[in-house]
Amino acid sequence: MRVLVAPTAMQLRPLLAKFDTVAAFLQSPLLLVIRLYWGWQFAQTGWGKLMNLDRTAGFFDSLGIPLPKLNAIMAGGTECAGGVLLALGLFARPASVPLIFTMLVAYGTADRDALNAIVSDPDQFTGAAPFLFLLASLIVLAFGPGKLSLDALLGKAGGSAK
Q1: Total-model pTM
Q2: Residue 108, pLDDT above cutoff 90
Q3: Do the beta carbons of residue 34 and residue 144 sit within 8 Å?
Q4: Domain spans of the chain, in order of start
């Protein structure tokens, strides 16, 4: 009869190293997909705000946002330009900062109930419109745009294309 013995940490180390190599290979393609999809979504959303400026300003006014037309231009411009930069992976980390700020403002104004429910009802928080935009921006800020980006191609220090 053969007895199975659990492998030791020393025996698992080479296997885990190979697993880490394979997983690390997936990092840049995953970051590329996140950047392309959410960058395009940001750009479209921002373009929509800019092309429907009076409607967007009216919505901002209904939320009590001061200087609604100016803020609509700023939010739309940030989302449009930031989204394009995110998708291209050009100055991706710096571009993610104003996108994060814009999504936090969106939570604080248009989705205040979801923001207030972050602890009591996390599903409401994660189901709110800004959540995935915010998450994608935070991922790019934290991990950089990846090797499949213009930042990596051009060797931009500001993009830190890990």
Answers
A1: 0.86
A2: yes
A3: no
A4: 27-154
